[in-house]
Amino acid sequence: MSSDHSELHNNLSQIITGVESNVASSSSSNSTLNDDITPFPSPVLSATSLAGLSLSSDGELEPEVDDDKIVTEEDKAKALELKAEANKAFGAKDFNKSIELYTQAIALNPKDSTFWNNRAMSKAKMEEHGAAIADATKAIEINPKYSKAFFRRGQSYLAILRPTDAVPDFKKAISTDPNNKAAREQLQLTVKLIRKIEFEKAISVGETETASTKCLSLLSSGACALDTTSSPDFPLPTIPKDPNARYKPTKEFVQGMIESFKNGGKVPKRIAWEIILGCKDVIEKEETLVEINIPQGVTCDIIGDTHGQFFDVHNLLSMTTHPSESHYMIFNGDLVDRGSWSVEVALTVFAYKWLYPEYVFINRGNHETNDMNKVYGFEGECKAKLGEMTFKLFADVFTSLPLAVLVSATQPPASPKSEGSQPAILNEGKRRFFVCHGGPPVSKDGVTLDEVRKIDRFGRQPGQEGIMCEMLWTDPQEPQGRGPSKRGVGLGFGPDVTRRWCELNNITAVIRSHEVRADGYAIEHDGLCITVFSCPNYCDSTGNKAAYIRMQANGALSYHQFDAVPHPDIKPMAYSSGFNFGGF
């Protein structure tokens, strides 16, 4: 490690933490704001420390190849043909296919660095940044002057919030290719980000008041009055005569605001604060594990990641219909970041929670965290549209969001069959589903629902280990057992791990999100792990379908796909301060 790199690490040693970190609690007046605006307390270093799991010394995540293979001219020619096919698949946004073809090319000719780097690019598109780092590293070993490989690795380090590791790679990309303008731009932005982190950490010392408390004080003092000079083009919430009293939501207001957003409308800061604080009033009364029953005649829709793709959310709501006493909705985290209408998505969902507290439920995702918001666009977008204090208010309230919903059927199942090959696991003769963003807490066996209920979530960032971290970051894997996640953060859990946890807790299936699926959903682990992803053509680049899941009162599930709809010509991550992760 170079001296510059060591110094960079030392400067951030107090910022990038490896434990579940306390930040300003929304329920405690004597807590501090030390980490409330500090990025990178989330699981950002690697999968190496979680639950005693470790990557191999070289970070290899793929089946080993024969580095000593004697490569024939025939091998080289066939490998180049496969590369050409892989490039076409990449261009068609079939990234799984391109990975498969690059892998075949590597098997024939493991000494061609471009194959490794191209596969790294495909893996980055699938958010497998840990595996992308491993592949780019291999490309660099083969060709130490491969500027694009250093740049690719640096981008993946930055994507998993390891800026101090990204800096030397960007520098190396520039030194090996002085004309690499993209690397030069990313280096400047990354160094600027690190300095910003240090500055915000320094100025936050000694702050004792949460953003929610500050905003409430400003409201009561009249400092955030409703601007009546530019009245919005939708019905306002119920406004009491006392100018300092809190507003009340109405159906006409919420639906009018949503339609206004579709037409490019904006919401006044005072109304945005009322929505966010109104949502906070509701969710801070909820348990960390929210438990709901689905009565006869009621349906419940589970929505996966929406990531600021407001126009697709608007289309989704037209298909699901809006929430009501006969139609519950669970939004399973990652409302924000990447898409450039994250403010509109978050305000839509928060407003529905404010209006329908007993019919709408919101889980926290790994992007409802300070560190991710700083790099992936929500912080910049929120500050641009509604100001810095509004972002701090959102960030504070994100820490109050529950981590999971336990959804129970009230009617017996029509069939004993599960979503897989085995009979359904039932609880007192009925189906029930554990809905959380990443996955169940399974770094060790034996974790119960009671342990989830006892998590003190308020004011906390996920940390780098522990139950809260796992529920926001884990991913299913095909092999049995546990392993490091290919995304470079968290861990992977196999079918056997899922079955043991579901049988222990009488869970019919885990419903989670967190990952792109080509069809918008995937039934995995013999029906015990179901992924739902509700961002069609994610980041305008992956070409995937999106989906939502509908549950009936007897626990029957149905899967509903939808495609992307047109949106104004604003690119994903338009507010991310110029960071570019190759489309992600």
Describe the overall structure.
Helix 1 (3-11) runs antiparallel to helix 7 and helix 11 packs parallel to helix 16. Strand 13 (546-551) and strand 14 form a beta hairpin. The strands form 3 sheets. Strands 1-5-6-10-12-11 form a 6-stranded mixed sheet. A 5-stranded mixed sheet has the order 4-3-2-13-14, with helices on one face. Strands 7-9-8 form a 3-stranded mixed sheet. Residues 1-61 have low confidence and may be disordered. The longest helix is centred in the N-terminal third of the chain and has 24 residues, at 181-204. The two termini are 28 Å apart. It has 584 residues and is of the alpha/beta class. The protein contains 19 helices and 14 strands. The chain has helices at 3-11, 73-91, 95-108, 113-125, 129-142, 147-159, 163-176, 181-204, 211-220, 251-262, 269-283, 310-320, 342-355, 370-376, 378-386, 388-398, 449-453, 467-473, 495-505; strands at 289-294, 299-303, 327-331, 360-362, 404-409, 432-436, 475-476, 482-484, 491-493, 509-512, 521-524, 529-532, 546-551, 557-562.
Any chance you could write out the topology, listing elements then pairs?
Elements: H1 3-11, H2 73-91, H3 95-108, H4 113-125, H5 129-142, H6 147-159, H7 163-176, H8 181-204, H9 211-220, H10 251-262, H11 269-283, E1 289-294, E2 299-303, H12 310-320, E3 327-331, H13 342-355, E4 360-362, H14 370-376, H15 378-386, H16 388-398, E5 404-409, E6 432-436, H17 449-453, H18 467-473, E7 475-476, E8 482-484, E9 491-493, H19 495-505, E10 509-512, E11 521-524, E12 529-532, E13 546-551, E14 557-562
Parallel strand pairs: 1-5, 2-3, 3-4, 6-10, 7-9, 10-12
Antiparallel strand pairs: 2-13, 5-6, 8-9, 11-12, 13-14
Helix pairs in contact: 1-7, 2-3, 3-4, 4-5, 4-6, 5-6, 6-7, 7-8, 10-13, 11-13, 11-16, 15-16
